[in-house]
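Example protein
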Amino acid sequence: MFRRSLLLSALPLAAHAQWAPDRPLRMIVPFAAGGITDILARATAEPLAARLGQPVVVENRPGGGGNVAGEIVARAAPDGLVLLFASQGMVVMNAALYAQLSYDPANDFVPVAVAARQPNVIVANPRLVPDASLGVLFERARREPGRITYGSPAAASFAHMSGERMRFQAGVDITHVPYRGSAPMLTDLIAGNIALGIDAIGTSMPHIRAGTLRALAVTSPERFRALPDVPAVAEFLPGYDANAWYGAFARRDTPEPVLARLDAELRAVMGSPAFMRLLEERQADPMPDARPALLARMREEQRIWREVIQRSGARAE
């Protein structure tokens, strides 16, 4: 069990009394049930309801790369009763990926509390990529521009953009192959139709453990506890960081007393032993950053990923 050092109540009790919900909360999830975002949202909803004294209803609204759910929250009243529970990719990337949106995903939301962070992993077919390290692979890519292929679960996905950022920072020419989901990408990778893949740790881990895929690096800025012997990309490319994080976002103009209460209660839920056990099971790490730090991180990531997206020419349909 890893530890999370949290101040479970960041505000005095008197400040908490400034706002209390008078009806159920809606937690809008932009993806279908069963994925990591949905699992974290549902694990948060029940204990949050107990702390607030109101039901918290999780609604799955998939579609449009998260934009269906985003529009619902963006158009809701700024009263804290409709929250977006999503990965940061939606609010830092979609404004640059979509040519026309009815709302501004980069500026219409503020992060309230983050449930977890989880890197992707760069995996290789060991028959096609016998190289001992990512650094050796980069050298090979410089000698053979365009010859090495890497797959991702979808074009314009966070995994795809993670690969493009790595490509740009390393100054190498590797060719992206998009798929419709992790399963077909991993199947092709194991079959040897592509050399590399960038994928969530959870879906790649069984193949890494079985030896059918080799983990070359994780996309977090430091090594990940579930793969302690696998280096981070940042060990080869200083400053590289493509860590996905998941949490609750509110309308930007939500009153501060509402945000403060939600922040305090969500932090208490996400710092509980039960939630920590869930993160271990799902191979995710806690991310106890305070709201000002989260907002600063979100703004910085918006800048970084906008540049990556523009340079890559990626567009979401």
